[in-house]
Design goal:
The chain is an alpha+beta fold. The chain is 21% helix and 19% strand. Among the domains are: 30 residues; 60 residues, no CATH class. The strands form two sheets. A four-stranded antiparallel sheet has the order 4-5-6-7, with no helix packed on it. A three-stranded antiparallel sheet has the order 1-2-3, with no helix packed on it. The longest helix is centred in the N-terminal third of the chain and has 35 residues. The chain is flat and about 135 Å long. The N and C termini lie far apart (142 Å).
Length: 206
Amino acid sequence: MAMRSGLENKRQVYVVVALFVLIVCIGGWEIYGSFFRPAAHAVSVPVHPAVAPGSGQGGPAAAPGPDARKLTDYSLDPSLHLDKLALTENVEYAGTGRNIFSADSGPVTIEAPVKSPRAGQVSVAAGAPLTPSVPRPPAIDLKYFGYAQSKDRQLHAFFVHGDDIFEARSGDIIDHRYKVGAILPGSVQVTDLSYNNLQTLAMTPN
């Protein structure tokens, strides 16, 4: 009895293993088919209502659509009218202006207008350049009130700017804006760097 029960247990194990292998094979085949096999697309062919399926007529059914436009028209006259054709061929050029096809025709004279289209408008000669008004730079806000001479005979100028007093030589810059040029006993040249404007300041008493 012990040997029979052992054999029956082995058979049950074999049956379970075989079923498991079969299930795995079927599942793998279904997965392969769903991912790798091309899906078949269903093609629907429209059928005209006049041609029912199974009516026995051969060939594909025509798709429904709007009516075709009729091209034949029996009201048209296909004959050629020579008199109307001759009228179109006898048309001559009769313009009132200059004949552009003739080299002997003179230029057309255009009358001058009686008055300007706008009253009080100032006329500008053709080709005359328009000179825009350039604003004048402001005066340099420095006061030259004296000078001194060093041992090397170089002049030093004294300036007043507001409440400040400056001593400068030629080439120095005052208040980050004014550059001192040639210094003379009676005047000094100063350049306004903001406007690139050169002015000559005369000496004035303090």
